[in-house]
What does this fold into?
Amino acid sequence: MSAASESTGYLSFESRLKAMLMVEEALARALAQSGVISEEQATAVAEACQADSYDADVLERKGAKAGTPVIPLVRALIANAHSISESASRFVHLGATSQDILDTATVLQLKNAISRISDCLVCIESTFASRVKDNANTPVLGRTLLQAGPPISFGLKLAGWAAAARRARIRIEQAARTSLCLQFGGAVGNLSSLGSAGMDVAQNLANELDLPLPQAPWHTHRDALVNLASSAGILVGSLGKIARDISLHTQGEIAELREPSVSGKGGSSAMPHKRNPVGCMRILAAANRSPALVSSLLSAMPQEHERGLGGWQSEWPSLRDLFSLALEASSEMAEIAQGLEIDSERMRANLDTTNEVVFSERLSTALLPRFGRIEAQERVAELVRQSIEQNRKLSLVAAEDPEVRSVLDSEALDSVFNVFEALGFSSVFIDRLLDAAET
Amino acid sequence: MSAASESTGYLSFESRLKAMLMVEEALARALAQSGVISEEQATAVAEACQADSYDADVLERKGAKAGTPVIPLVRALIANAHSISESASRFVHLGATSQDILDTATVLQLKNAISRISDCLVCIESTFASRVKDNANTPVLGRTLLQAGPPISFGLKLAGWAAAARRARIRIEQAARTSLCLQFGGAVGNLSSLGSAGMDVAQNLANELDLPLPQAPWHTHRDALVNLASSAGILVGSLGKIARDISLHTQGEIAELREPSVSGKGGSSAMPHKRNPVGCMRILAAANRSPALVSSLLSAMPQEHERGLGGWQSEWPSLRDLFSLALEASSEMAEIAQGLEIDSERMRANLDTTNEVVFSERLSTALLPRFGRIEAQERVAELVRQSIEQNRKLSLVAAEDPEVRSVLDSEALDSVFNVFEALGFSSVFIDRLLDAAET
Amino acid sequence: MSAASESTGYLSFESRLKAMLMVEEALARALAQSGVISEEQATAVAEACQADSYDADVLERKGAKAGTPVIPLVRALIANAHSISESASRFVHLGATSQDILDTATVLQLKNAISRISDCLVCIESTFASRVKDNANTPVLGRTLLQAGPPISFGLKLAGWAAAARRARIRIEQAARTSLCLQFGGAVGNLSSLGSAGMDVAQNLANELDLPLPQAPWHTHRDALVNLASSAGILVGSLGKIARDISLHTQGEIAELREPSVSGKGGSSAMPHKRNPVGCMRILAAANRSPALVSSLLSAMPQEHERGLGGWQSEWPSLRDLFSLALEASSEMAEIAQGLEIDSERMRANLDTTNEVVFSERLSTALLPRFGRIEAQERVAELVRQSIEQNRKLSLVAAEDPEVRSVLDSEALDSVFNVFEALGFSSVFIDRLLDAAET
Amino acid sequence: MSAASESTGYLSFESRLKAMLMVEEALARALAQSGVISEEQATAVAEACQADSYDADVLERKGAKAGTPVIPLVRALIANAHSISESASRFVHLGATSQDILDTATVLQLKNAISRISDCLVCIESTFASRVKDNANTPVLGRTLLQAGPPISFGLKLAGWAAAARRARIRIEQAARTSLCLQFGGAVGNLSSLGSAGMDVAQNLANELDLPLPQAPWHTHRDALVNLASSAGILVGSLGKIARDISLHTQGEIAELREPSVSGKGGSSAMPHKRNPVGCMRILAAANRSPALVSSLLSAMPQEHERGLGGWQSEWPSLRDLFSLALEASSEMAEIAQGLEIDSERMRANLDTTNEVVFSERLSTALLPRFGRIEAQERVAELVRQSIEQNRKLSLVAAEDPEVRSVLDSEALDSVFNVFEALGFSSVFIDRLLDAAET
It folds into this structure.
């Protein structure tokens, strides 16, 4: 199943309808466990809750008009239950308010989506991590402000990507643990309409749905949910960072990386020679949309009194789109990671093309104990100018400069221009980044 | 058709598919008019462009993978054309790039949606305007920072709402005129692949689709489109302002307005006595989502070179949702405007409950030529305190104050506390607001 | 110090300059501890790092032009150090890149701001919690979609606010622990310019500044920082929810709460009788601005390679404003909490004004075992209609209805309309919300 | 003056204070013209309105507490006026509400800022336009999805940038004309406190300030202002697009453009060889921040009744930052435009490096009348593969292919691979883009 249809799958109105029915069914069972209704009645309601008895399109349309799909759904559910057991039908939805059903359905849908997102992130992390070792000593130009800088270890770059995927996963899983809990409070959140059975029903309902019972209903306190949404937004942002890097590496003039070749993907309708970074494109498109979705959810937080007017109702489309994007971006990045083509020779060639001017910081640092920062930088800037004008390696130009030679002997100069020494503490950072992955 | 399904109608993938096929068909006709292909070939392609030959779901899924639905669509279109005329099939999509088809399809979809939005705004404006006259002398509490202030004319409030709808309509129509134009530039925007016929084909294509020809392709210059989107966002914001006002007026303790009663709308799943302001709720929900959608489109503007990577591709979902919300909000507000229940007696009762303390600004202004602002306010504040403590009208308390009487005689005092004088230049402003509507 | 100037204090450019100098000083000390420079040199640099030697305005202006204030600062710092010790001046800034200094300065500034925010949140939580007990049995109208619903316990509402403040505090403190760590990686993040001493210097620098050492430099991996920013945005949103509630309760027609009276605050330049909810106003203004600031930070996440072009540089103003708003909102809410005037009599009066129609859900639930949901709701809706028409309490109307009486005896009816029974599990939820506060 | 301090200049609190005093002074003169106060009194108030009599820092701090700076300002102004003329001091601020002063001050500040922004945009447009002619026949790789495509005219790219600057200027100037008008309505927007003189004073005040008189006060109808803000956001987005392009062209491996070299700008604290695209960086940073600021203003639109609680108060910081960014980005881009280094030889070299595979679309289009799109693309894809493998020009490979030769003779093949023919209608588009500039 493609990423697109998959995300639709978890967060579609069809799955929403199923989740709502699952909550209504669990509520009937919980009411029976608490002795409010009979087992037979619960069974009849459960039977009436089979999703294929409901027309999702009709309910979606009526729900838009009514302000919530729960109103037409409960009406349809009562009718269905009535045809099975008149007495059971009287207790459908007992003790619940529309928001109880919708919020808990949201929680169930997000739980499924996040489980799949987690799997993708595990894959991204382990795939990038598995390629670190081979590339730990692969030098590639470091690039700051889109300009060439000293070389870095491509393995460290991979390890950084792996660790970002891990942090994203841990963050969303932690947020899920505190936010994905039952919503059940009745009309104004104090469970009053079930009399003394209220808390017992709530606990049974939580058990039925395998969800934690919160300290209290959270009808207009949305902080935990928005925190979960933020973690999804940050996740997409982190994948966006990786996609930005990869797409820049795949530019024709740079050509250090290529997205995997996948049939039906990345072709151009006008230009047959192209292999477009379509995976990165989709992830970057996701990274462009998700910040605004998070901001919409934050904007909706100041909800009025016991049920918000507009704020609450605006949440679901943003949540749906945000987690769809998170799922899509994770799934695309997992695919990219698994087939990413790394051209270490080209990396070296691009580095060599610079004639070593990217070692200028190392050279000026080496000269600094004698000249101080400013003079050292000025001297090196002059040598760089010569190197560019003469199209010669900076090491050669530097070796001919008497002032440089008065400070640095041949060995010292070799060290300055040694590409592997220039990788610094890359291997230490790699270990720290990947070890953390194991804890 | 309900607001929800209607907005889906204009901006659904089905309508998008139809619009794309309309562009491909028009392109074939334009190529024939320019003599690039024969009339027969154009007719064959046009025949192949009938929307019911295509499976929207399949194309949407394949398109997500390919990075654009145009790639699988053109493939299917060629196959269909081939079965009608092999020679015609060779020229399908000639000279176009995917973005030409998609952007022009977007333009066609938005044109339809905006036409419907305009109709709703005309209705909102004329409906509110039609009720101004009866309410021009209806005093209602002015409320600033959610606190009671001097009375205002409810007619002026209505005229303000009408004028806001008018400005929103004029703004979106103007933006549409400059932004809704043809996109046709080929792979990199210079029409090079059609040889010398390029501009002629472009002009014919524009004519076929009844769209203006832009100065140049706008593949990565999105300013006009984003300006149109902004006008939609502002429109929703203005309707949100009206919905905010109405919803606050409908609070039980205030009860000056009621949303129209519509079957299947505004009931509560738990509380039978309620008549919820569901129309306002949906408009406020729209007003909560639309700012972020506009920001997403603004964020996508810095698109790379001749076709953006991620930015362009992120636009459509935001445009679709934004114009759906604009359509939904306009449609809901038209419904509210037409059935809004205005309780002018309750407005008067709420005003009377304040014991005239809301006339304190008028009183202090009247005292100001004698005492200056600060002393006048302090004196009035003291009188207000007495009025509240004694639960007596401020005019009575003021009339007993010697300092007040030394400045204001009975007639002057009557004038200060005359509710109709307090309406100030309301009728002038009403005329200015509504006259403008006629220009 | 007022909230406004206080937030300026923590996050101003002056405090930023101090923080940058603190990092440069700590770097010199760390270099000495690692044996890279002498103790004397470190002491000289430290001496040159006294903030009053620098002109903040000049550095801010030059920094804007240079692209970062670190460039002119380091230049000025070298000049100052040179006048103390020529040899020391050579080693200023050794091993660091501009981003190391700026990011670590950001971390130090945020640490201070968050410490103050935490204090305010502790105050908000404990203040609201301290008033729960007295209000646990204070009934107030529950309000859903801005319409009156069944009564709730005002104590539970207070406990909900207290718990929201607690969660906000815990969330930002946790986020701070993982995000507020050292940034030190040199030009491209591998610490290569310090040779073998790099990691040792990094650890010493972390110790000097009392900051954790991260797994690796995070120059373009901003997830932890953005997560911290999100937690600030959520915090403001939660306070916005409380401010929204309070401001609605303070409307003149409702008048159940009043903001504390503070001199110089809440007056109107035109209307002397007003006491404006200025604290709520400022918090709601903050809640309006913060979502967009979070979204800006999320948008900036896909930063290029080893140092972003535009993304990174856009972060600071958003962080500064966001944490200023968080500080301001927390400080304002602490002030409101401490002086909030609660009018429980007015709450009761507003409840009584409804003639008990807000008990309709309880009544229909009581009738539901006999009639089922739909019929019960219809019967109750009819009774509510009579109650409103006759302006009589719903309990009286219901008591006269034979069908109702056939199900509910007098005791049962009394129970339905008992306002304290209607509070449901409020006391249980209060205990759960406040107990959690202690863990 | 640098861009940074300049933007501070127009939109600082100091300039805000001046603008507020200018409004108060103009109000006094208008009151005199309408005969409400005497000329002498007006002169005294005007004298009291000299900005250097006020401590901006103190007023800013007190204003934050009071909820608006107008309250402490009016108090100080009265005191100052009192020392000049007791009688004059009584009439300070007469008829106005705080929001009248603040909104009109905002309008005056924005008017100045926009005038300066317009100047910069004129400069950007004319500077880019002036370089079009020399580059109209300069081929450069077209790049779509960051991959090489067929060549384009660099002159057309420049013309596109020039036209974008022009549209941005026209849009913001048009928006300014409808939005930058007087705000004057008194406490609740009906001018009631000035008695019959109200409209006359309003018109005189508008004349004094050289601002249009709106149809009615717009205290809570913010659509025109938000439209102006949107136009600023779009402007920054358009400049962001240009900056994105330039920054990508300046990458070391591409090196087709260089930002101008400006002293004190673009250096690196660690890497002396670098010339960083600091102008682009600042513009891209602006383009990252501005979308969220626009969204904040859109979010604030649903303002309550006659004066919003939170929404209105949140506007100014967003407006200030947005127009500062617009000014900064315009000013930076003007500087870049004037000194942009264009390396047409490198453009040609980069194009040549592709071995003509970027002509593949032209080739497949030429083959299409014979083979149809799909087969033509497959054949060309095969030839491209050979070209890459053999490292030979595509034209040479194609010339040896019998199928190709059966369709295209030498002349036709030459035409396909003629780089100048590949520029298509560039010159036509250039004329259209630049001609429009003159209207």
